[in-house]
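ABC transporter permease: structure, please.
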Amino acid sequence: MTIALPAATVPRPRFRDLLASEWLKLWSLRPTRWAFPLTALIVVGIGVNGALADYRNFPQYSEGVRENFVPTWALRDAFPVASAMVLMLIVGTLGALSVVNEYASGLIRTTMAAVPARRSLLSAKVLVVTGVTAVFGVAVVAVSFTVTQAILSGRGVSLSFGDPDVLPSLAASAALAPMSALVGLGFGVLLRHGAATVAVTALVLVLLPSFVGQEEAWTAAVKFALPLNAWQNLATVAPLHVPPPYTPSPTHSWVVLAVWPLLATAAALALVRRRDL
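Here you go.
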């Protein structure tokens, strides 16, 4: 007598299982293991170099510069433009590699076959990438600020976390990391090619702002709709050299930093559902 047994059912993966899987995949990438410490070293090193230069040259500065050193120049030493560009470039590249490596290796097909819910899978990746890069951004900005201000304290021109304008500036700097990672991830889903994705990410985040002027209303609108320029408007205490009609508000700049990753994520979720692998 043959007894028919019910077919064994494989439990569907829960969302926390997807998060755990994406966590392992992110840290299994070889670039991830060296890029974060290398980025932190470069970012902090740039700030330290600027702070040491100001410490040495402070007695030779003009009276006007010395009077305005705090908070303007002290805050710039904490996280210079060069630090922001390095952070955006490397973290944006990591965000791109988190998805394009799966397309290149074919792992994405295996993953999607095991988890047909494509948007849930990509949402888990977005959350993991956002969480890791946000923590990294906060940590590296805090370390850079602490070290540079310790150097400047020898001249009595340092800042503390509680001083006016410090926390908003540092928050904008820390936000660059998750913003750049999600923009890179979005371009990765769109292009699905490593070199092209990295090139486009670098162009939009780092290179394009230097080619856009602010002499006309429309060029100023384009310029301050770019993440790097939005960050500069938030991180710089002294007024930017922008004609008054075109000066962006802090709210405008925060919206820019929020809209870029949101649009990149929304586009990626739409594409991954509708497009063939």
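Notes: The chain has twelve helices and no strands.
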